[in-house]
Amino acid sequence: MIDVLIVLLAVFPPLLLLVYYYSRIPTTISLIRLLSFFALGAISGFIALHLELVFETVAQKVVNWRIIQRSLFGVALRQLIEVGPIEEGCKLVAVIALTNYFQRQYRLRSSTVFLFCLAVSLGFTAEENWIYLFHGFQGMPSVVERLISTPVHIMFSAPWGYALGALVNDSIYSTRHRGQVFPAWVNSVICHALVNILSISGRYSFPWRLLNYGLFPFLLWMFWRLEKYLQKLQGQDSRTLISGFTLKQRLWRQFLILLTLMLGGNAIFVLFILTRDLSFLNQLQFFDINVVLSVLSRLSLSLILLLSAWAINRYSRRLASRRRYF
User: Fold this and answer.
1) Whole-prediction pTM
2) Helices assigned H by DSSP within 104-246
3) Taking the CA of residue 199 as centre, how many other CA atoms within 13 Å lie in the half-sphere pointing to its CB?
């Protein structure tokens, strides 16, 4: 019974997110057929896990790989040369394989190929959720962490998904966008590695643990980038927030966007830490006065950060919408 529950907790959130994006992206592919991408994404996750184990075994024979992993530098090296390339590579191969197959039956749109990328990435997420929950299930804390991490893989893969979509839309493998897929894939690998490094940095001593506060701002930026890619592929105009006639104006608006991400991202980070901490408590502890005061103080901090980010974002949008007439 527990095993069935773990499978449902691992698979249902990514499936729900896939249905959400399927409802947003017009396509002739049925949801049932789209699930083949989801399934292949899960299979690619198991392949990636096996390849990582092979890499670890070979690396241990060449150098003392386990000792290297004890430092943050070793963790960063592993993410950049092992985890990021293998996982993003497996997802990319899965999308290309099924895209080539469906291209014989459908005239694919750019946004449809992007949806394929999302489906494979969410299938990969489901497999990863199952691995984490099956081998380290700790009740609600584990479930909360996996729920929050559900959209992460689609944000990783958005650059090469966009590049593949542009490639297919351009008269099937023309040379115009062919050279953009590999740089986009490298971008995804770097972002994948960076997110993992930022999330792991909280385990280390000061000042490295301060890097942890950059995690949610970076995730927020990647989500904004994902939505921007989707808008472009659907021919929608995305709002311009960074513009200006002078370098000083552009730098000022870039600073405002960075400040918005830092405030908004860390407001979400505060809520994440609060939710995770509360999931460890039993029902009686919720009525403890110290717990109540701690919850109220963290909620107040998060609200202040969110309101500040909202105000700065509104100011940035107003600046971007101004027009000068001569």
Assistant:
1) 0.86
2) 110-136, 140-148, 152-169, 175-178, 181-200, 215-233
3) 15
